[in-house]
Amino acid sequence: MAEIKADALRKRSAAAWNRKDQWRSLYEEAYEYALPQRNLFDGNWEGSIGGRSKGLKVFDSTAIHSTQRFANRIQSGLFPPDKQWMVLAPGTDIQPPQKKEVAGALQTYGDKFFSILRQTSFDLAMGEFLMDMCVGTGAMLIQPGDDLQPIRFDAVPIYLLALEEGPNGNVENVFRKMRVSGDSISRQWPDADIPDSLAQQIEDKPSEMVNLEEATVIDIEDGGYGYYVTWKGGDDAEAEVLVYRKLKMSPWVISRFMKVAGETYGRGPLISALPDIKTLNKTLELLLKNASINIAGVYTAVDDGVLNTQTVRIIPGSVLPVARNGGPQGPSLMPLPRSGDVQLSQIIIQDLRLNIKRVMLDDSLPPDSASARSATEIVERMRELATNLGSAFGRLITETMVPIVRRALFIMDEKGLINLPLKVNGLEVGIVPVSPLAQAQNLDEIQDVMQWLGITTQMGPTGIATVNMEAVADFIGDKLGVPEELRTTDDERAETEELVGQYLATQSQQPAPEGGVGGA
Asked: What is the pLDDT of residues 169-186, one digit of tens each?
């Protein structure tokens, strides 16, 4: 596909942004109540007002804490820091005689992958990515880095992106708003073709921010991608392409927690909990206003010529002029009766908080504040979380884990850090999750096998003869993510079987002791 002209690219981008505007009010409310510090929908990005106070409309922090706990639980369950949360395994196209050799090589690639991952900001970016995904849509940009940080992971707020889907429901095209200082353009894109008007602007005001648009568009002909950076000098000026590159793989990983047919953007648990969050926030706001009235008081004053209502000041509190305070000789000043049932409000607030935590998967039992948790309890927690995630667990694997690993391995291969001749497509090389959340589901399969093994053992020699113990051990090792170097090879197993056979044959040839048991 030939290079797309800047004006055509900007029109396509504008259409994508117009479609995204339908989501603005929904996403803005979600970020306002649950992620106020990450909220860019309030105009902070356009105005470049850094350090502005946020969250002024939030009166209850339940949604904020539950969103952070959601991201932390998913990260510790699927992408635990400083641990190997996946293994590369031979795919279905690899023949059985070659699987052992390929598995050993893939184990080396996997170790290299995680050693490089620990040098990057992946853990930090993943936490921010999952918080955005709690709203509905998470986006991560994965690009080659330098010698100190070979791969760069950046969690990009969804506010800055407009998305286009392909025919299969996957996000193919990504349009991004950018603001960079003029003097950093040539450093960020050394191959940028800067026009004379922009070059003069950079020379006059090098630190002034320049608005750019970035586009990553699929090339239907060869399956690659076109990467563009465009600039428009003014409303009447024509857009110009500063950077154009051909890419073999998209640098973007876009994941949706839950997706409705016909919609491009996702809906997360935060969207489901939003009605309760808004009700809780308003209830607490009214409760605090009522509490301030109870503390400071509101008073009525009789305008009887003795008390001057224009000059009287009772601080804190206020005075309401009235004609009479009860009876012909009523007091000149008396407190206004209070209203509201604090106990009933507390019950409503408690119910709303429990509902929010339940929707946000923050209802773990027993509470985390209890005594030290056993290994069995941790496994049960992971099982409960996997059950509550439901279909979202599969989307987290297919739209998040697999694309991240594929993109990172691609960059490592291009930089010469590994030599991966096989494709990570599930047929030649598969990605097997071994994180705590994935293993919680694998334990169900292991328990089924162990139960079947126990039944066949009780059937005696006939039942035992139906069991391939080597295959059972390999199956359990695969499900638990046991490294290949901890398992014996086929040759080692054959040698062990031969030694065991020789030992049994030697024992059978030894003469029985004379006189039987206990002597003659």
From this structure: 889 999 999 999 999 999
